[in-house]
Task: structure prediction
Amino acid sequence: MQFSPFNTITNKRAVEQNCLSLLRTCTSLLYLNQLHSLILKSGLQSNPLVLTKFTSTSSDLNAIDYASSFIFASDANTQLYDTFLFNSVIRAYAQTSHFKHKAVHFYKHMVDMNVLPNKFTYPFVLKACAGLGDLHLGKQVHGSLVKVGFDDDIHVSNTMVHMYSCCGGGIGFARKVFNEMPKSDSVSWSAMIGGYAKLRMSNDAVELFRQMQIADVQPDEITMVSSYKAMNLFRNMGDKTIVSWTSVIDGMAMHGPGLEAISLFEEMKGAGVAPDDVAYIGLLMACSHSGLVEEGQKYFNSMVKDFAVVPKIEHYGCMVDLSKVLLDIDEEDKEDALNRHSEKLAIAFALLKTPPGTPIRIVKNLRVCGDCHAATKLISKVYN
Result:
């Protein structure tokens, strides 16, 4: 029979695929031990693809030490070991409770073997440093990833923020990384707010939460958890300023029920803190998002009458948004709401849609209520 290199290669690939398939279905340590023997008999003990899968399967069975003792045995031929195999080992150790230091060990071993880390390597190593709470070690890894140019990767940067936040004395470094990120996402904000919350730095957590709202960051579930941590911290703050109150009201306006924002607003007034124009924007926004038309109109009037807050275009914008809610209520309620306060809605719409200084004339075949009359006089003075 004539020797064929093609047949030999095809057969090796078939054996490789068979091992990979068996590893995918492995659910016990006994079966894993049998597959270990099969890998040795098949001559695949230096095959990085098979060893990578063997590592992940071992990790799932809480047997990563078993895998690493086999893969990195003293007589192992490691010349073909690649980045993916090392990443699998590092990741597995980073996920353990008591052996995170081995993730760093294998990262150093990887570098010593001149196997190049990639952008997926560093988040695993940084998470291990975070679990260890080792600031010095984290700084070393940070320096290494800067040298290879991965400090601009958003996933790497997010993990650095998390790592520094978990290490004693590292929160300042976390904020520096956060501030210098060329691009951030909801995970970035969550990591930084969560870091402040963990250290009970309530003022910083609430202020950053406010900045997140201003930046119009679309939150995910993790951001919401971090944000509510900030709100809980707020409850325990001794000296609450108008800025801290407004930050939490804004957060409720964007992501919580409008009635909660109203409750917080009333609590602020009860604490003797006078609301400013920014607080009213958050409050009216909450009413708008939750469809609280009556409440929004009431607070708009109160803003002018009780606190002499001069309405700005943002306040009128909220009132216009509230007017859109009227399209979704039944005809009887719609007629009642429009009959009582439609003038202010019409003026708000006109202010938004016309150039400054344009005369605005509102025509209505019913008597103008006192609230709308007073508001109209004030708006005329403010906007000439």
